[in-house]
Design brief:
Elements lengths: L1 E6 L4 H11 L4 E6 L9 H4 L24 E4 L6 H10 L3 E4 L9 H8 L13 E2 L2 H9 L3 E3 L3 H16 L7 E7 L14 H4 L4 E2 L7 H10 L8 E7 L6 E8 L6 H11 L6 E3 L17 E6 L6 E8 L3 H15 L16
Parallel strand pairs: 1-2, 1-3, 3-4, 4-6, 5-6, 7-9, 11-12
Antiparallel strand pairs: 7-10, 8-9, 10-13, 12-13
Helix pairs in contact: 1-10, 5-10, 6-8
The structure holds NADPH dihydro-nicotinamide-adenine-dinucleotide phosphate (NDP) and N-acetyl-L-glutamyl 5-phosphate.
């Protein structure tokens, strides 16, 4: 059994990790932290886990994380970088769900996250945890930077076109919407029921930290200079994410060939579903599952491709993807413990 620790077990990605790991045949939850709930049985806070999780929270300074084989950080940016060096030196693998190790360039990290990086020596080693594009490196990694939720949709949507060299990489547009759980479980005015329900708004229009993350990753796959305009929106759903991506074709290609490009790219990807050309994926077709679904459109058969991408921000956008990485790091089939079918309605 893989001994698993979770730092930040009271938040949304933390409890999602618990749900997935409780059903994982090779994982044994060994330590889970909370600064506020030291000593409280996990199932007392989350009754959905009664009968499935039988350990209690401990404060981060008391939790014996070094006895774990892998530790997930489901914490705000800046927490993992403080503890990862010591854990890795002790032979523990680390998967950070935050952004501490996502950007290779320290100055770019510090500019966007407005905190100094305390473990810059690990930036080079950290592996970006997007299995569909990075499977081999993940399987050898000691430290995973789990992707952001929006960047997962943008990269998997643009990648096949970018790799084929048939779009203008300097003019990528992403119009994306997230459910409110994307903002985490902390109390904030913007996520109050009376603010976020029955409402719809864009945010981060002049710059969101997922733009440099996505651009830097996409840049690995093209010689053109990547230019991305990304606008996130908050929509009144609890979970789920819908990204509508636009790319300009630079070559003649039929719709059948476009579709074939995506189907070929993701033919072995268990968690990426390329739907029929022209279809309309819904976020609920992924709710609670680790699936990401893609559908292509070509308005008026012109030179713009519209790529619709849906997923669940908490599963494929965070905790499910992190478990997918854990499976690879421990030599297990990638889908172990991740075969849940989406909930309907
Ligand atoms: N929500 C989402 O859809 C996604 C989130 N992410 C990223 O995952 C990370 C976690 O997100 P999410 O679960 O939503 O956040 P939450 O705010 O819901 O939870 C944060 C957790 O971190 C703990 N925590 C906070 N500060 C510290 C600290 N200084 N030291 C130790 N533990 C701390 C909190 O526990 P306590 O206060 O009890 O100690 C809590 O359990 C974030 O970095 C987020 O950006 C990534 C992709 C998607
Ligand atoms: C709805 C909402 O607020 N979403 C978050 C994204 C959360 C996330 O997953 O991203 P990181 O791990 O990079 O912080 C936001 O836009 O800040």
């Amino acid at each position: 059994m893989i001994k698993v620790g979770i730092v930040g077990g009271t938040g949304y990605t933390g409890v999602e990790l618990l749900r997935l790991l409780a059903a994982h045949p090779e994982a044994q939850l060994t330590a889970i932290t909370s600064r506020k709930e030291d000593g409280l049985p996990v199932a007392d806070m989350f009754p959905s886990l009664r009968g499935h999780v039988d350990i209690a929270f401990s404060s981060p300074d008391k939790a014996d994380l070094k006895q774990c084989d892998v530790v997930f950080f489901a914490t705000p940016h800046g927490v993992a970088m403080a503890q990862a060096p010591e854990l890795i030196a002790a032979g523990v693998k680390v998967i950070d769900l935050a952004a501490d190790f996502r950007l290779k360039d320290q100055a770019t990290f510090e500019k966007w996250y407005k905190i100094p990086h305390s473990a810059p020596d690990l930036l080079e080693e950290a592996v970006y945890g997007l299995p569909e594009l990075n499977r081999e490196d993940i399987s050898k990694a000691r430290l995973i930077a789990n992707p952001g939720c929006y960047p997962t949709t943008m990269q998997l949507g643009f990648y096949p076109l970018l790799k084929a060299g048939i779009i203008d990489a300097g003019n990528l547009i992403a119009d994306a919407k997230s459910g409110v759980s994307g903002a985490g479980r902390k109390a904030e005015i913007g996520t109050l029921f009376s603010e976020a329900s029955d409402n719809f708004k864009a945010y981060g229009v002049h710059g969101h930290r997922h733009t440099p993350e996505t651009s830097a990753q996409l840049q690995r796959y093209t010689d053109q200079k990547v230019g991305l305009i990304f606008t996130p929106h908050l929509v009144p759903m609890i979970r789920g994410m819908h990204s509508t991506l636009y790319a300009r074709l630079t070559q003649d290609i039929t719709n059948d060939a476009l579709q074939a490009l995506f189907e070929e790219q993701y033919k072995d990807a268990e968690f990426v579903d390329v739907m029929p050309f022209g279809s309309h994926p819904e976020t609920r077709s992924t709710r609670g599952s680790n699936m990401l679904r893609i559908a292509l459109h070509r308005p008026d058969n012109g030179n713009t491709v519209v790529i619709l991408v849906v997923q669940d921000n908490l599963v494929k956008g965070a905790s499910g993807q992190a478990v997918q990485c854990m499976n690879l790091m421990f030599g297990l089939p990638e889908s172990t413990g991740l075969k849940q079918i989406a909930l309907l309605p």
